[in-house]
Amino acid sequence: MAEEDRQRWNARYQGQVEAREPSRFLQSLEARLPRTGRALEVAGGPGHDALWLARRGLDVTLVDISDVALERAAESAREAGVALRCQRLDVEREPLPPGPFEVVLCLNYLWRPLFAVIPQVLAPGGLLVFAQPTQSNLQRHAHPSARFLLEDGELPRLVQGLERLSYTEGWTQEGRHEARLVATVRGGLT
């Protein structure tokens, strides 16, 4: 299945020609995010969010299953003059890079077992930034399909071993119904 996933995502990214802007949600957290330290973006595709973090001064590792996406991210980093570590990784079969990370970012990717390992790679006071559409998103959009969506109200139950700093769920400016969360290691700095 992993090779099928890799091929599917490679084909998808091969067809994308324009670069995307960083997530509005991520940018809205600018004052809360550190400007130094290490960051990990999980399933970050062509790296528009990872690049935004790198431009802020973070040492960023981007992991994704798609070779094409990682090549695009590396090229964008070179053009922007920032360092970006790109690593092909199937997070459903391989461990995350070793931490500690001051930021772990995961937007638009859902693999529930990931929540059990994130606390192990976060630095004390480090932040998990997570956003994913919920089942309510299907009221307006056919994609992503239900199998890739959170149940409404599910996200807080998935996040164990972390202290929730902010949580919202509802329709976003972008027209998607998302659950959005910022959390830290319990007892860490905020």
What would you say this structure looks like, in words?
The chain contains six helices and seven strands. The protein has 190 residues and is an alpha/beta fold. It has one domain (2-185): 3-Layer(aba) Sandwich (Rossmann fold), CATH 3.40.50.150. The chain has a seven-stranded mixed sheet with strand order 3-2-1-4-5-7-6.
Write the layout of secondary structure elements.
Blueprint: H1 2-15, H2 24-28, E1 38-42, H3 48-55, E2 59-64, H4 67-80, E3 85-88, E4 101-107, H5 114-121, E5 122-133, H6 155-158, E6 162-171, E7 177-185
Parallel strand pairs: 1-2, 1-4, 2-3, 4-5
Antiparallel strand pairs: 5-7, 6-7
Helix pairs in contact: 3-4
Please, what is the average pLDDT?
91
CATH superfamily caption: Vaccinia Virus protein VP39
Helix content: 25-40%
Q: Do you know the CATH architecture?
A: 3-Layer(aba) Sandwich
CATH class annotation? Alpha Beta
Distance between the termini: 39 Å
Domains (count) = 1
- Low-confidence parts: none
Sheet with most strands:
7 strands, mixed
Short overview:
The protein has 190 residues and is an alpha/beta fold. It has one domain: Rossmann fold, CATH 3.40.50.
